[in-house]
Each structure stands twice: as structure tokens, then as C-alpha cells.
Amino acid sequence: MPRMSHRVQLLFISLTPMSVLGTIPPIKLLAGSGTKKSVDGVGLNASFDTPLSVAVSHTNLYALVTERAKVRQVFFPSGNVTTLAGSDLQGYSDGTGSRARFFRPIGVAITKRNIAYIADWNLNASNHKIRILDIVSKSVTTLQLTGDVRLKGPSGLALKNDDSILYVADTWWLLQVDLTSGTIAWLTGSGYSIAYQDGIGREAYFVNIVGLAMGPDESYILVADSNFPGSSQEQPSNAVRLIHVGTREVVTVSGGIERGFSDGLGTNARFDQPAGIALDQTANFALIADYGNQRLRTFDLVSREVLTLAGSSPPIPAVSARRTSQGNVIAITTDGLNVIITNVTGNSVNIIRCPSGECEPNFYKSPCRITSQAGGDGRCIQCPNNTVSRRGSTSQLDCACDLGLYGPATACTLCPEGKFKDFSTTVSQGELDCLPCNLTGFSSLPGSRSKMNCTQCARGYRRQGNACAPCPHNTSKNTIGDFECSRCPQGSTSTLGSTTCTCSASMIMENNSACVCKAGFSGDTGGPCFVCPAGKYKNATGSAVCSLCPADMYSEPAQSGCVCNAGFFAAHAQDSSMSCFTCPNGTYKDISGNQGCIPCRQFESRICKNPSFLVPNSTNTTLESSMFYESFAPFLHALLFSSSAQGGLFWLSCTPLMDGQCLRCPSVQLDAIPGLVGITACSCREGLYAVSVQESLKSLFSLSVSSSTNQSFFLSELNRMQAYLAGKELCRACPNGTFKGFIGHGPCLPCPLHSTSNNKSVDVTSCVCNAGYYKEWHGRQNFTCESCPMGYFKDKIGDLNCSSCPSG
Q1: CA distance between the termini of the chain
Q2: What is d(CA 487, CA 482) in angstroms, rounded to the nearest whole number?
């Protein structure tokens, strides 16, 4: 056993379990000369003679420590030690102060009225006593016990919360004393030891109860059951056991018969002669003085987990005492902030306590509970980065974002430019935002801590005397500071007070130095840029010229590539190889693009129900199930493909002689609107508007051959209709300056402003800009004619670009 210092010591301890940290907490001397004798005094001038047990007052101002034949009072944190009762002489007599005699005051408990009950052990088993000490008057008396139970060897004591019942750990059983009547009675345990055994009442066996602690709700009592080397007990026990007061049941909650050292849950943990136990009345934790292992252990009453709080090698003096008869060696103050432990061979009383005092600014004091492994140790901890706190802060919640920062303390963010924050905020004040500079033209850098930082010209402003003025047109400034505005790069412009310059819709900024033409547009760097006309393309930015689409390909204006013409297809829909192939036999493609060709539809005839001839919206044109009409199939094929008519195709309704089929419109001026059925689908082609189409078709609608089944008559009637319409002006060409891009009877549309077109134009792209104007495209079918910029001209109508004026 290492040599012990006979002193009272103050032990500052981190509340993180020592089994994790593996370090010894620092020990600071409180009082004690190191000499084995009983002397009152303060600090080093005080000494102890074999301290046996300890209890803390409900005021948390002092502790009572019983010695070989005295009761001492120890104030903390001053370390002032005084003797309340007893002397250096052992014996038995009531009295006041030093006139009282104790034989061996082995256990102590303090009421809320400053009355102490002391278990006075005697070599003569018949002389064990419970003594009463009035702490104020120092008067000592003996409690007169009545009842059939006799004390066999009292040690630890505990009181009910109302101080009405005193519980006595009496070696092999637990007794209770009614302090009003003095009646002593059995609570649980056999009263003698033949084995270690859990059970109810007298079926429970204890080896040696050396310490006990009352639960906060008084429903249970925790005891340390342990035999010590040199004791009279042969049965082993190294357990913490719980006694249910109401049912008298005894249950082992941690440890067991075997000695050892290991943290763990419940009976998986191991102790070596637990010497004392204390409960934190405000938490679900207990402290256990593990004598044999020289360590201080914690026990979680909820999870029943045991962890090591303090002690390693060398041992801490608090739990290194060897003795044969002793009371509870450990006590916790009612606020859970201090632990008092006696050391019998070291003749010292040790105090584990949370540090006191205020923390400096920008620090906060961590919460401190000696028994809580999850709590702090009362140290001052620095606030997180970028946060501050006031002096005396007691929680991390008191830390707030520093000047120039805003947001929650866990994620402080720099005030953005143009704002500042010249105060810190606490949680109670909320996460206040930064304040704006509110000075026209002035700004501040990110993280500004004062309005005095709002002295630099904002983005888009330049220094002009004592003020900041907006950047002029065609200049910009994208930084904060007293810098000059920069001229916009070639081909770009800006408005007053701009932070950036922008290119026209047909251009893009390149390397922040100049505007160049986009793909699909050609022109010099800096512009102007002109749209690539239909049939031409440009696939890169810059000043390259537009290229002609390859054969069998086509492009809309302002395109970066070409697509296959109608009747041609690309190998892949996204093909960029500029290669097109002719649609194979049996397929067709009637639009430009890279789509595939479509298989031709096979001839199909249908039988009609209640047939009628060319009567629009007739309810008698319902088609029945599909089948071939063998007798007329050759006739229909010849009519469809051998006709000399050049009009578009339309779908003919059912007749008595033939099924529905595609026929040509009866005039070259007409084309069929896709999706419509009957001759009403025939309307003016693109580029033509209607003159008398409806009147001219009336006679065709009125004819009916529904009663005839003669094929030759049907054919002659159809030919007569074509001849009737052949000489009539059904549609007329759209005039110059207009276009019509759809099939129908609607009007021609005017070309965009400053543009014109030839007659019979079929698309807006047929419109060309007048002299002095060029096309500015805003989409595939949307453009405007813009005047040539200064220094450029265009002297002809058409899709030509503006040309640079000759030098000079």
C-alpha cells in the first residue's frame, strides 16, 4: 500500500469517466498536517485521527466526520475543522462537548434540524448504542430503544426525508428505528449469515452491510454488501444490493460474489470490497467507494451501468483505506456538487467539488454534477469560433455571434457587403440580422463591424469628391472600393450605374474582353452580327462566315447546323456528320429534319353502312369492319395515281360504289388540310388566299349519286366536277409585303416592320429587310429588322448583312 498523506484534500475532477480518459484527476490540498492526531485548525493546522464515517448537512455548508472517539465538524471550502463532541479517551457517557464519551462512533446521519444520529460501536456486543448529538448546543444523549430487536454491530445510518425513521445497517440485516417512540424493528435480512442470497424478508442473506443510502422517493435503499480482509465473515460478497422498502425484497443490482475490476451493466460489473455508497438526490446516480480497487465508481440507477469516475495507479487517497469496522465512507451534498470521502489510514477527509468563480468574457462555465458522467466539470470553456460571451456566462447558449457576423452561434455568417453589425446578440435577443449601410452609393466589405466601415463606393459607383456617383453609360464596376469604372468591352453596352456590361442578343462575351458572334450568326468581333440565312449555318462562336448547307440538307435562319431535306434521312436523329440518305422504296418523308422515313400505307377498303356521297357531317358515314372491296380496287388505284389533276390529296367519304380513299383536290390552287375528311379539306395553298372557294364547291356538295350503282356514271360525274372548277379563280397570290404559311381560307399576314416580300410568299422567312436594315433573330420564326449600326450600311433589299463603311 502506498504511503498516505494524513491530510484533508480538495479534489477537482473531470466528470468524464476515468476509464475512458485513463488519467488521474488533479488533487489540491485543503487541510491536514499529515500527522495522525486530532487537532482543530484551518488548512495545514488541522489533523485527523482515524476518520470512520461522514455525512453532509442539508445546508451543504459543512460535513460531520466521526473519528476514533470524536465527532468533528468540517466547513468547506474554508477547511476549518472543529471538534463538536468527544475526546481522545474512549468510553461511554452522555454530556456536552468534550465531556461526552464515545467508544467507536462508526456511522452518522444528519437531520434537517441539525440533529445528528451516531452509531456507537462497542467491543461488547451488548453495549452498541445509537447516540444523539445536538450540533448547535453540542449536547450528546443516548437514544432509548424499545422492542424485541437488539443491535449486533451497527455501522451505516440513513434517514427518511421527514426524519421520522432511522435505518440502521446492522451487519447481517437492516433495521429501522421509529425516532418518535424509539421502537427498533426488523426490516429485512436473516439476522445471521450462512450464505449470500437474494430474497424477500428473512430469506435474504447479507455478508456485511457497510454503507447504505436512501432513495429520493424513499421506495428503496441501496447498500454496499462487502466482507473485508481480517473481518469475521468467511462468505465472499462484492455487491451493490437494492432493498424494496415496501416488499422487503433484496435484489443484487451490480457486482456479485466474485472480486474483480470491470465496468459494465448490472451484475457484469465487478468490485473489490465496496466500502461505501452515496446517492445524488437530484439525479439517478450513485457513487461507490471501491476499496480494493482504490477507485471511485458511478452507478446509473436507470441503465444499471457501472463506470469508473476516478482513480488509477497510483491510487487516489479517497478510497485507499483498509479497516475492519467502518461506517459509510462517502457522502454527496444535496446539490450534487460536492463529494466528501473519508480515508481511515490516511487520516484525511477528501472533498471532490466543482470549481467556483465566474468565467472571463468569451468563456462559459460548464454544468457540473459530480455523479453525472454526461455532465461537465464546472470548468470555464471557450465559446466556439466567431462567438463571444459576457463575463459570468453559465451556458454555451450565452455565446453569440461576434461583431460583423450574424445567425445562430453554431453557424455564424459574415455580414454581406453593404451591411454591418456592431453588436453581439444572445439567444434571448434572437438571431438579429446585420444592418444596411443606407448610404446611397456607399457600401462595406463582408464582415463589417461598424457603420464607419460604410465608406467605400459600392459596385456600379465611382468616387467623385466626397460622394460616390453611378458609373456612366457603357462603363461598369463590379468591385467595392474607390476604383474607376471600366469601359465596356467592344460590342457591349451598359446602363447608368451598371456592375456588368452585356452583349446584344446575337453575341456572347468572350474572356471578358469583347463580344463575339454566337453560333448561327456571322460578323466581326464587337459586331454587328448578322443571322445566317436559310440554307446556311455557322457552328462556332467568333467572326467566321456562314457556310452553305451540303446537298440534300436545309437549315432555318440563325442555325448552327443543317438537317436533311424532305425525302432524305440521317443515320441517327442527332446526327451531326452532315450526311443524308434517300428514303428507300416503300417509304417517304414529307418534312425537313433528321427523322427517319415513314413506311407507305397499304391500300385498304372499307364497307359503308347507309352510305351517302360527299355529304359533310352526315350521320350515315359510320365505317364498319375492314375488308377489301375486290371489284373496285383496281379502279380506285387508277383513279388515285393516274389522274392528271395536280391538287393535294383528300380522304373521300364512303359511296355506294367505293370505300373511303385518298383523292386529289379538284384544283392546283387547293391543298388538303391534314386530318379533315371530304372535299371540305381542300383549301387555298400556302401563299394564296381565298376568293370564291366556298361558292365554287357548292355545286359539288349538292351532287348525289347515292341512288346509282353505275361505275361509269360515278367517274363521269367526278370528271365533270374537275372541269367545272378548272377555269375558276378559287385562290389569289398574297401581295408583296405579305405571306401565308398555312393551308386554309385565312388572310395573308404582313411582314415585320422595315421588311417586304415577293408575292405568293409562304413563310415569314421569305420577308427580307429593307435597305439600311438587317435581320436580328429572336427565334426560329421571329425576327426584327434593325437599322445598321454607325459605321455600317446596306443599300439593297434582302437578307444581306450591313457592310463596313469605306475608310475615310
Answers
A1: 112
A2: 16
Give the separation between CA 672 and CA 611, rounded to whole angstroms: 23
Residue type at 794? K
Give the separation between CA 339 and CA 54, rounded to whole angstroms: 10
Strands 348-353 and 6-11: parallel
Q: What span, in angstroms and rounded, lies between the C-alpha atoms of 545 and 258?
A: 97
CB contact burial 286-295 (16+ within 10 A = b; e otherwise): bbbbbbbbbb
User: What tens digit of pLDDT does each residue of 76-107 get?
Assistant: 878 899 999 999 999 999 999 999 999 999 99
Which residues, in sequence order, are CB contacts of 746 under 8 Å at separation 6+?
689, 690, 740
Q: Using the predicted structure, report yes or no on whether residue 527 has a pLDDT greater than 90.
A: no
Nearest to 646 by CA among 668, 625, 669, 678: 668
Q: Which residue has the cell 425513521?
A: 165
Residues 737, 725: Cα–Cα separation, whole Å: 29
> How many whole angstroms separate alpha carbon 802 and alpha carbon 418?
45
Distance from C-alpha of 287 to C-alpha of 301, rounded to nearest angstrom: 11
Residue 611 in 3-state DSSP? coil
d(CA 318, CA 311) in angstroms, rounded, equals 9
Tell which residue, 420, 368, 364, 358, has the closest CA to residue 388: 364
CA 495 remoteness from chain centre = 42
604-629: per-residue pLDDT in tens? 333 222 222 222 333 333 322 222 22
Secondary structure E strands in 467-585: 467-470, 475-476, 486-487, 492-493, 502-503, 507-510, 514-517, 521-523, 529-531, 536-537, 547-548, 553-554, 563-564, 568-569, 581-582
Q: What local confidence, expressed as pLDDT, does residue 438 receive?
A: 80
Q: What whole-number distance in Å separates Cα of residue 242 and Cα of residue 32? A: 36
Residue type at 679 in one-letter notation: I
The CB-side HSE value for 440 (13 A sphere, CA atoms) comes to 5
Nearest to 763 by CA among 734, 792, 789: 734
Given this model, what pLDDT does residue 229 score? 52
CA distance 598 to 572: 15
Q: How many residues belong to the chain?
A: 808
The pLDDT assigned to 626 comes to: 22
- DSSP output for 46-112: -B-S---EEEE-TTSSEEEEE-SSEEEEEETTT-EEEEEEE-SS---B-EEGGG-B-S-EEEEEE-T
Helices assigned H by DSSP within 208-305: none
Listed residue (545, 551, 548, 490) closest to 522, CA to CA = 545
Partners of 133 in beta bridges: 116, 140
Please give the Cα distance from 81 to 6 (Å, whole number).
14
Q: Does the pTM of the predicted model rise above 0.70?
A: no
Q: Which three cell numbers stand for residue 686?
A: 400556302
Q: Which three cell numbers mark 715?
A: 367517274
117, 119, 125, 126: CA torsion to nearest 10: -10
**Whole-number average pLDDT of the chain:** 77
> At 410, phi and psi to the nearest 5?
-80, -10
CB 543 within 8 A of CB 527: no
Grid coordinates belonging to 200: 424477500
Beta bridge partners, 617, equal none
Of residues 670 and 795, the one with the higher pLDDT is: 795
For 569-606, letters b (16+ CB in 10 Å) and e give bbeeeeeeebebeebeeeeebeebebeebeeeeeeebb
Spell out the residues 6+ positions from residue 360 whose beta carbon is closer than 8 angstroms to its own. 380, 391
The 10 Å CB-count burial string (b at 16+, else e) for 46-71 is bbbbbbbbbbbbeeeebbbbbbbbbb
